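ok so i was messing around last nite and threw this chain in just to see what happens. nothing serious, just curious
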Amino acid sequence: MRTSVLSPLRLVDEQGVPCAEVPFQRNDSGPRLDDLWFMVGSLCNLQCIHCYVASSPTNRTLEALTREEVRGFLAEACGYGLRRVYFTGGEPFVHAGIRGFLQDALEVAEVTVLTNATAPIRRHLETLGELNARFPGRLQIRVSLDHYVEGRHDAIRGEGTFRETVENTVRLAGLGFRPIVTATAEVFRGNPVPRDQVERAFRGLFAGRAEVDVKLLPAVLEMGAQLERVDSPAPAQFVSTGRMEALGVRPSDLMCHGGRSVVKREGRTRVYPCPIIYEVPEYDLGGSLRESFERPVPLAHPACAAYCVCRVRGTCTNA
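result:
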């Protein structure tokens, strides 16, 4: 499977203009961390045909984080004003340690889990209900649902996953959550309808059964499994400082200005700019948050333009 998207990084264009860089945000007391992401591993019970991580029941490229590793980064993050923690993967609920991760993170920040809400989450519904009662309003669940039409969704994630995801989302609402239903731009493939119509269609799936929010992602990333569906990746758009200014994009609009992501590869925990960029060595910002804050992030990855800068200001956060 093709998983690489860069060969090599384009740090300057044909005229020698350098790509834009994003420094980490600071206030008078130093770096200020808004969002900390943990990619808990690349294992997943599903094998979705558009997954940018190419997660599957056998993919261990991103290794499973331990509770001690997560605790260490949480402790460091608290020194920088941590506000929000996200757990993603892979599928977080296949990780045996997810309960401990959530308990530790909820003690210090608001927490969101990104999930396909299929079989693995069923084993944790009681725990999630207990945590929601113990930390009211601090835990959110992001549910991936690729289409409001059952057949279109199941063509991406597997037969039966639509009904399972919808039913488990209703169960989450019954535990007091307001799930955030999240869809990629796959929902618009062959479906040229306005965004507000798509949002209404997703909410309509749960009418009378659950209150949900809807988040539509602006692009399907040409990474991981998605590369198997295209003849060749689209040419990466070059992002210079001048182009950012022309588009009205500021560094503070981008995730890497106030966030970081933790992954584990080859036995080492490393810090990356965001949960989209996890596989390119040049974006390895070090083994600690402090070290990562000292390095500006070059906007040279194809996703920087396709997802964050040139589209609808894409963000992986709940915003």
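not much to say yet. The chain has one domain: 28-231+257-296.
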